[in-house]
Amino acid sequence: MPSYLASDLTAVERALRLQRGALAAALHERTHQADAPDELAMANYVDSTDDRAEAASMNDNDIAQLQHAAQSLRQVDAALLRLADGNYGLCAACGEPIAAARLLAALSSTLCLACQSKAEQAQQR
Ligand SMILES: [Zn+2]
């Protein structure tokens, strides 16, 4: 991992766990309002289907928020795994350290700015 992180790892992990707790709580609350038995099952369901009619008790905005929270939760989980592996803060594409400012702005970033730009350009093609 980048050397600038070595002294801050505990803080990073704490921040990631806080984010994770907040996201899980938000998902839990949302899905229980919708009478879903299990927030993860619901999150996976929401994430894996485009059939909005089956989720008739929620509107598109609710679903979009749930999808966003579920995706963020996965990113935070992945970041915690990389932290445990010692790969945290390194670009998943080129292996270079991700800039500190970028990581601080988004703790679960997986790509450096250059690789992120390339990925976005590729998506737009
Ligand atoms: Zn990169």
Describe the secondary-structure layout.
Elements: H1 9-33, H2 39-48, H3 60-85, H4 100-105, H5 113-124
The protein binds zinc ion.
Residues 91, 93-94, 96, 111-112, 114-115 line the site of zinc ion.
Low-confidence segments: none
How would you spell out the order of helices and strands?
HHHHH
- The CA-CA distance between the termini, in Å, is 32 Å
Bound molecules: zinc ion
The proportion of residues in beta strands is under 5%
Structural class: mainly alpha
Overall shape = flat
Structure explained in plain terms:
There is one protein chain. With 125 residues, the protein is mostly helical. It has a domain at 3-88. Helices cover 63% and strands 0% of the residues. It has five helices and no strands. Helix 1 runs antiparallel to helix 3 and helix 2 (39-48) packs across helix 3 (60-85). It is flat, with a radius of gyration of 17 Å. It starts with 8 loop residues before the first helix and ends with a helix. The site of zinc ion has 8 residues, from helix 5.
